[in-house]
Give the backbone structure.
Amino acid sequence: MDHDTREMLLDTAGRFFAERCGKDIVNGVEKGTWPADFWKEIEEMGLPLTAVPEDKGGVGGTIADLMAVLRLAGENAVPVPLAETALANLLIAAAGGTPGPGPATIVLGNVSFDNGRLSGKVDRVPFASVADRFVAVANSGGKPVVAVVDKANAKVTATPSHAGEPYGTVAFDKATCAFSGASAVSAERALELAALARAMQMAGAADKVLATTVEYSKQRVQFGRSISTFQAIQHMLAELASCVAATIASAEAASRDADEGGLADGGSFSIAAAKTQASDFAQRICAISHQSMGAMGFTHEHILHHYTRRLWVWRRDFGSESFWGEKIGAAVAKAGPQALWPALTSSRYAA
Amino acid sequence: MSIPKLEFPPFHLPAEAEALRGEVRQFLKETLPGLKSEDRFSSWNTRSSEFSKALGKRGWIGITWPTQYGGSERSFLDRYVVTEELLGNGAPAGAHWVADRQSGPLLLRFGSEEQRQAILPKITAGECYFSIGMSEPDSGSDLASVRTRAEPVPGGFRVNGTKVWTSGAHHNHYCITLVRTSGQHGDRHKGLSQLLVDLKTPGVTIRPIINLAGRHDWNEVTFSDCFIPEECLIGNEGDGWLQVTSELAFERSGPERFMQNFHVLRELVRVLGRQPAGRAASILGRIVARLWTLRQMSVAVAGMMQGGKSPAIEAALVKDLGTIYQQDLPEIARVLAESDATTEDDMADFLDVAQYATMMAPSYTIQGGTTQVLRGIVARGLGLR
């Protein structure tokens, strides 16, 4: 995708999300209403196929193109499995399959593939109860396999996330697969890509939290003046802006590194660092924003919680700061003190 | 709804800069072991004229300046790499640091041809060191309130007043001094100028101000009817404020604002051993992720500066985040080491390092612009003031 095409895609997607993904849709999903028309429009725009090659019926974009779309989705609290479906489609295409339509989700965890059948059970699968199919990167005799299971062949226990999104536990018991193929990426790598997607969604959501809070503070009048003119509020918002800028900067850097380094292992260290950073800053971002917006921001009526609740939930998705932090810390410790600086400057785990 | 965006577009240091990194690392590997280090607790605060001269010989001081003044006419990004390698490897770069970072660039931009020719080649040789004469007893964050007065007299200025927190004045050759050359105390930004003051000038008295750690870095510098020749005025009379604000961008944006106590992190890695428990590894990894993010942001700011932008707000934001990180680091490291260090010997040594870093930490969010001043700048960037 050339620069102009990419800009056009992002401009179109950004405007579409902003116009179509209103409060009604986000709150509707929380109440259990699947926004079928909204999803259909997303598919018509080709967004779930952003990073699928053109010869597989996709848009032919890069990982970075997809991640940029997902940042916009995060900025608008898009309450459908766009990230999950787009990653699933990317995995299927890279395993030699052809992605189909409909919402999908990815199942990353302890699942195994034997004699053409998938077994295992994974908790907290995003959008499990609205997905038409499940795409797992499973272990098959030590080798990764991409396996696709239709929802009819899986057992889903709905456990909505605290952000009101339809998460759930998915169990496969020697499930028949609609497709399977040798995976181009390891299960660990699939998790990295999913973590990157969430980090970018978090960057988008954080950006929206900042914009919402700044706007509110300018309009809200107390003691006869906008609260944005109080130094106490200004300093809080400056700190908020710093945390948000850091979240965006780390996610964007990881997206670039993933893209440049290639599907198999690009940006491995950067992704771990970015997801750690996004998860670590999420609480400060939410706390400052809520404090600045007072009781208004604590209501269900206001949209702020669409973003802060997602940030809180997304911290845990596809590896928390504890998970990715441990991965980085263990690697840094193993390589020893002298390897730390070279690792930081090259954005790589020490060899 | 739209607010000004504070973006830090990912930026790659170019191949030339990365090639230079290899050269700098090799140089440091060869040079550092032979130097006696007066302490291992800081880098840009530790002075070694021997080291500065060796670095100057390689052409790595004033690296961006024109060759006619001893520079190498390399990019700002090459300078960034040299700077971060000095910090990352704990090189004693304190003697020439201020001259390279802001005094030289100031003279290059505003100084007279005579000043440039007389001073810049000595800086690039690693032989000429500078202090910053901005703060005064009654003038800290509110810099425009300086009282030091330079009264025009035939052939120059008669200077009276006092500067404080003047780092290294007892070692350095010059102090670029912010003075009031016209108008009254209440005129704020108007009537301020900067003078290139030779610290050996009669009437200049330098007294130590010892910091809480017992170190003599700071000084009080008093001027008593001190005659400064007119050729030492930098730029035009009355341009002092413009000069100072342009210097502050250099002072704030560099990697020293998050790499100052990098040795604490390296020492922490050492004492945790090669296989720390999961919880300890996780905390370590979270610190590393934070530092990595700061570096990505700082490199992005360097990229903006190389691209001709003046990212003052972005620089303030990175300094704010960086210095808070530097304050958190010794505390997180100390607590973690208390529970998870692997050997007793290492531990005693590490706690010494961490204690010292803890004592130094309050200075990070004061020098070069307090957190509160920086947040005011960021708030302005958000359109709040």
